[in-house]
Amino acid sequence: MDPLLLAAIVGIATTVVLFSGIPVGIGLLLVSVGFIIIFDGTGSLPLLPEILFGKLESFEVLAIPMFILMGAVVASSRAGGDLYSVLDRWLTRVPGGLVISNLGACAIFSALSGSSPATCAAIGKMGIPAMRERGFPDTVAAGSIAAGGTLGILIPPSVTMIVYGISTETSIGRLFLAGLLPGLLVTALFMTWSLYSTWRQGNAQAALGVVKYSWKEKFEILPRVLPFLVIIGAVLFALYGGVATPSETAGVGALFCLITAMIIYKMWKPGQLWHVMRDTTKESVMILLIIGAAGLFSYMLSSLFITQSIAQWISALEVNRWVLMGFINLFLLISGFFLPPVAVILMSAPILLPVIINAGFDPYWFAVILTINMEIGLITPPVGLNLYVINGIAPDIRLQTILKGAMPYVLCMVVAIIILCFFPQIATWLPETVIGGR
């Protein structure tokens, strides 16, 4: 059978299985094993466990549950609320200070947790009622938190970036550095739109801030937040400075976050620790199963010569490389509408990486572009996980209102992609400066 025709059949079968509602990891396993048996026979079955678990043998994989544990500790404590309160008290007299506080809290909490839904839940519980109370429209209140939560997969340390690094065998430290400035760029675009939206609706009172805090109130909460900021600063310093590997820094960071939360928030009860470990285990197993299944899926595509044929076909297209990148962005955007970021990266990155390198694009710059596309998928239907998290926090805000408020932030991310296309140095300068040439 022609490999490209076979690729279409595999694509249709995969789409049908994943749309059936079956877990992504299980779905990829079923598709992979099914096509291997059909075309290679049962003789290949003894190899499958070795391929599946071989994908999980990398020491770098250990960073994933460790960073998830780090995020679970922060999400299970009152750190999110305290972080929000600190920014609110210090920025209350800044024009639009409250919305800046929410987006800033989302950015920092995202860096601590690496989880978009956790960020939405932690900051949204405090930020949405506060913004509505001070007169911000529901679209700004809900949309800004939904969009701010997406920063968790771009601003380092990012679990998504770790998955990309594992699947493409690229440097995780360099990926983290590549995502830092674009993450700040997206945050700045979010803040700019939020301030403009507030000003446009004539909400001067909300834009100027109406609550005053004393210096005592501003300083009394800092001791509860600063330790977590110091931990993430130390983790990034150890990682970028070459002091330790991503897995080592993740383990140490998780341990210190756990100890800090136990001391500051008195998380001594077995039930509280069980809650943290349960959430960590569930999310880690889900991601690791997808990684192993995606490894098997990649083996199936390669053994049937599908990966090589697709890469050759794309490379043979006589189109401008930016036209090619436009089609790739469209593919990633549509994929992100229906599948979680980890699944899209694991299935598409190994196929697309040779293509984008042959076209002259930087693989670390592409990782940032891919991640921003995945961010868009988190706040767009039909999946749009962050939209449903916000709806769960504020059920009286209709889903359509949340979506309406999130759409301008989607455009902000599209603008960020365009800016990065014109100025790729935003993603490549920091890794080249700190780590040097590849």
Short overview:
The radius of gyration is 22 Å and the shape is globular. It has 22 helices and no strands.
Helix content: over 70%
In total, how many domains does the architecture comprise? 1
Proportion of residues in extended strands: under 5%
Whole-number mean pLDDT: 82
Main pleated sheet: none
Number of strands: 0
What structural class do helix, strand and pairing data support?
Answer: mainly alpha
Secondary-structure element series: HHHHHHHHHHHHHHHHHHHHHH
Description:
This protein is mainly α and 438 residues long. The protein has one domain (24-29, 44-435). It has 22 helices and no strands. The protein has helices spanning 3-19, 24-40, 47-54, 63-76, 79-91, 97-113, 116-133, 138-149, 159-168, 172-200, 204-208, 215-220, 222-240, 246-264, 270-303, 306-316, 321-338, 341-358, 363-378, 385-393, 399-422, 425-434. It is globular and about 75 Å long.
